[in-house]
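JOB MANIFEST
job_type = single_chain_structure
chain_count = 1
residues = 485
[input]
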Amino acid sequence: MSAFRVPMVLRGEVIEDDWVTFGARQGKEGFEAPDPAKYVDRLPLESPMALADLYEISLDEILDVLEALGQALDFEKNPHIQQAYEAGLVAANYPASMLKNSYTTLPYAFDRESLRELAEARIGIDHLEGWVPRTLRDGREVRVRAFGARTLHVPAGNGGLVSAITIIRNAITRSDAIVKAPSNDPMTAVAIARTLAEVAPNHPLTKHLAVAYWKGGDSTVEDRLYRPEYVEKIVAWGGFASVKHVTQYIQPGLEMIALDPKRSATIIGPEAFESDEVLDEVALRAAVDIGIANQEACASARVIYVLCGTDASGIERANRLGERVYEKLVTLPSHMSTKPKTFDRDLRDHIEGSRMTEDWYRVIGGEDDEGAIIVSQFDEAVDYAPALSGRVANIVPVDNIKKVTDAVNAYTQTVGIYPESLKRELRNQLPLFGAQRLTSLGYACHVTSSMPQDGIEPLRRMCKWIVDEECDPEKVFPLWRAPAL
């Protein structure tokens, strides 16, 4: 028996028919959704010309609609958001307190001034609203405008904010979006799309948003849909396998914008040990970076490098920090972090193995799967570091920064650093190894959509940058006057 049903939303029309059953992840109960094979031909726009209505409205009108949409996403009043929450209790790996908090804070993503900042900082409002002129050195007049595209989004399911960001980016860029709902968050994008249809029926933003669920890899859907005559850009979030799967469809005319799987790191300088008060603050900040969203985010702290040295006194400092971090971690408020809903069995075995090798590792906590801090007693991370999850982190004492740079690579997204002086010292080095975002310790998962993401600018990539150039023969040398050689 299915746990719930996931409607399809086709440009304002809600489809609740032709139900088929889909299995969920990790042995969870399955759910039903309309048969995607029956509706796949209705997902794309009939013609690119259908995008023209988005250019008859101003950015201010777009912001008006998004602001009203945010207000309508009030958890206490919106039945669609409540249904998404109920579905998330089954499909997602978040405890109820954290899941509810993610929905109660969802309206803040639609703050009008924040969205205006996003448009200006990441694209430039002038380029969104019209043709921006410039005279080039050779005399030609060029005018450039950012146009939207026909896009297909494969968002990650680690929180409803991803679906909100997807829909916001689509609106700001005046794009058309087909959103493939993720199996571990199948209802959030649907809930937002249904609410948009109620807030702005028949509005261009509503008519350019379709949300559907199909199982990733379903060739009966994807072979018919992932084609340049229907889709110009695919924005793919998520795990390695899902992102790599999309690459088989990439061809001239069909671009992929990959927000692919990342890991993050933490670097703490010796200043953390200047006093007990400073150590307490550093431990709290590190615990927040580990614990927020139960370490599900790619920005979450997992391996924490501490520049405390590897002699006996350095190891003692690392152990002391580990104890403080664990104390702070297990007392974080429940809307931020809790004992994980599920815990990886293989990771548990690894932790118990480390617990029995006291010369190499000191394991603090973890007896009840509540989370743990593993302190290496030498300058190497545990060999199962990529599997760290469920509020389990590894503190690694090091003598110098080279050990850290050796661990940074193209998969490193966020590096939380303490103190700020150390961040300034490293900010011209770590990007050379692959780091994409450097932030203050404690802010790894405190992000804003007004910044670049994963080393790219997704909004600029979502746009097509169109040039209108004017060449006056009196100003730009005409080729037809060139003498024969």
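[summary]
The chain has two domains: 8-260+454-469, 263-440.
The mean pLDDT is 94.
exit_status = 0
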